[in-house]
């Protein structure tokens, strides 16, 4: 097997690699470093977790170790789709270039232009940037790209997803034709193929195996979940997530929980927190300093649960993540591979659990087809009907019914709608935590105490143990409060 020492890297870079604790290059490194050092273009088809960042930083540092940067004319450029990824690439440069005198600047949103301008004015060897921010600087006349000798495009497929391809093409056209290009993508979509055909010249193509096929250290599982009622889906799904986490016990030292929508990232994080889980959200709408703080906390182990969207977590390099929970089935099968690849890194063991609802089955099938493996089905640990959440659900059902009947029996369906929506909205915003707590409390309180809450819950859980104690669902049993006259109910 090749050793780093055989790769013609600068001795000072070799020393830094050794100090980082690595001696054997990963396949993408062994494949990409030699042609990159020869000055050739490289097309790396690899995803995060394969060691791809070092496969371009190590030859770049070696190539740039000689020579000096000129004011406002960076000598190399690394483009990343997200701020987090850009920050991670910058960290890699810090690790591997620590024995070499190189200057770098990070151009990402959320950091002041003034500081970044000052660095660029002095001249930098390596400029690491997100495409939009780089073009902002360029358009303000603060930056010249005509001195770029090496240009890296990292995670091109993600750039495509995020609509950055026109920016990338523009940036390519602003750099010298003679530049060397190192281009990385996890997949080769037709649009990516077109870009590489246009801007790369006779590249060395290195493709490494999909992580999904390599990551035998990850135990996977899926719970096929169906809510007892549509308007209880969110609540029951979050209860299931908590149960899945709890079942892992101490083995779950930390975890990333993925949601498809940013709004769900917030709701799930808030809900977990209310239940006493040490959780925080991360997605693109949060401000930069908050995202950095959350990520640092997760990396350092002071934050146990990171609730994330795909884009925010993409490329997130935390070596020891014990669990990944897919709160939602990702709509792109490849994202599943990326998501679960956050655990089981570098030969460690990891566990990835997913919740799949009836609407997700098509996407789920696509995942199993992609990974060519059946994901083991795990029984819903909360069972089907008599879960805590569904007990609450039946109460809410009663609540809905009570509200409807308050409006009179003869009301049209459409006039009921706003009421239902309101219940759903309440549930989303407040999350369900306080309910469970109060429910437990309630169950231990004497009947007269419970009656105090009756006004708030109206025919809800406080009827338990009372006249309606047998009522758990719609069935053909009519809860007695429905039979009460309007005035009586109001008085109750
Ligand atoms: P990346 O694919 O660049 O996100 O890297 C994934 C992880 O692999 C990072 O934690 C790196 O520090 C680590 N890594 C990089 N190169 C090596 C190597 N040659 N041997 C072992 N781990 C490595």
List keywords for this structure.
seven-stranded parallel beta sheet, Rossmann fold, 492 residues, 14 strands, 13% strand, binds adenosine monophosphate, alpha/beta, globular, disordered C terminus, 47% helix
Structure description:
With about 500 residues, the chain is α/β, with parallel strands linked by helices. The protein has three domains: about 200 residues, Rossmann fold (3-Layer(aba) Sandwich), CATH 3.40.50.300; about 190 residues, P-loop containing nucleotide triphosphate hydrolases (Rossmann fold, 3-Layer(aba) Sandwich); about 70 residues, no CATH class. The protein is built from 22 helices and 14 strands. The strands form two sheets. The chain has a seven-stranded parallel sheet with strand order 3-4-2-5-6-1-7, sandwiched between helices. Helix 15 links the parallel strand 12 and strand 13. Helix 2 packs parallel to helix 3, helix 3 packs across helix 4 and helix 17 packs antiparallel against helix 18. The protein is globular and about 65 Å long. The C terminus is likely disordered. Bound molecules: adenosine monophosphate. Keywords: ATP-binding, Cytoplasm, Helicase, Hydrolase, Nucleotide-binding. One of its GO terms (molecular function) is RNA helicase activity. Pfam families: DEAD, Helicase_C.
């Amino acid at each position: 097997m090749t050793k780093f020492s055989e790769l013609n890297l600068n001795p000072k870079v070799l020393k830094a690699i050794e100090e980082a604790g690595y001696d054997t290059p990963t396949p993408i490194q062994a494949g990409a470093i030699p042609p990159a050092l020869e000055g050739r273009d490289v097309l790396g088809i690899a995803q995060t977790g394969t060691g791809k960042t070092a496969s371009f930083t190590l030859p770049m540092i070696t190539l740039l170790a000689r020579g000096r940067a000129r004011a406002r004319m960076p000598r190399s450029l690394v483009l990343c789709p997200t701020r987090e990824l850009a920050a991670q690439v910058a960290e890699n440069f810090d690790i591997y270039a620590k024995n070499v005198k190189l200057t770098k600047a990070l151009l990402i949103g959320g950091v002041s232009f003034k500081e970044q301008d000052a660095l660029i004015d002095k001249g930098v060897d390596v400029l690491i940037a997100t495409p939009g921010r780089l073009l902002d600087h360029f358009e303000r006349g603060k930056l010249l790209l005509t001195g770029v000798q090496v240009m890296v495009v990292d995670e091109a497929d993600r750039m495509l997803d995020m609509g950055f391809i026109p920016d990338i093409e523009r940036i390519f056209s602003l750099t010298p034709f003679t530049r060397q290009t190192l281009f990385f993508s996890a997949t080769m979509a037709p649009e990516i193929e077109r870009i590489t055909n246009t801007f790369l010249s006779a590249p060395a193509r290195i493709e490494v195996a999909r992580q999904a096929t390599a990551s035998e250290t990850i135990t996977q599982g899926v719970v096929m979940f169906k809510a007892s009622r549509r308007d209880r889906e969110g609540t029951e799904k979050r209860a299931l997530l908590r149960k899945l986490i709890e079942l892992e016990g101490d083995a779950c030292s930390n975890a990333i929980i993925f949601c498809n929508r940013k709004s769900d990232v917030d709701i799930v994080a808030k809900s977990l927190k209310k239940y006493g889980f040490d959780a925080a959200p991360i997605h693109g709408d949060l401000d930069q300093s908050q995202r950095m703080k959350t990520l640092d906390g997760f990396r350092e182990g002071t934050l146990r649960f990171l609730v994330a969207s795909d884009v925010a977590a993409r490329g997130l390099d935390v070596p020891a993540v014990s669990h990944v929970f897919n709160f939602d089935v990702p709509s792109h099968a490849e994202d599943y591979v990326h998501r679960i690849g956050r655990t089981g890194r570098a030969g460690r063991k990891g566990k990835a659990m997913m919740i799949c609802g009836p609407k997700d089955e098509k996407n789920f099938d696509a995942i199993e087809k992609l990974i060519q493996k059946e994901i083991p089905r795990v029984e819903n640990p909360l069972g089907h009907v008599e879960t805590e959440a569904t007990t609450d659900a039946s109460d809410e059902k009663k609540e809905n019914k009570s509200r409807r009947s308050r409006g009179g029996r003869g009301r049209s369906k459409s006039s009921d709608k706003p009421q239902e929506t309101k219940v759903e909205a309440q549930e989303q915003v407040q999350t369900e935590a306080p309910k469970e707590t109060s429910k437990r409390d309630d169950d231990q309180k004497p009947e007269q105490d419970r009656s105090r809450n009756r006004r708030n819950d109206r025919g809800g859980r406080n009827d338990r143990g009372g006249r309606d104690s047998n009522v758990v669902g719609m069935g053909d049993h009519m809860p007695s409060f429905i039979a009460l006259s309007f005035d009586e109910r109001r008085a109750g």
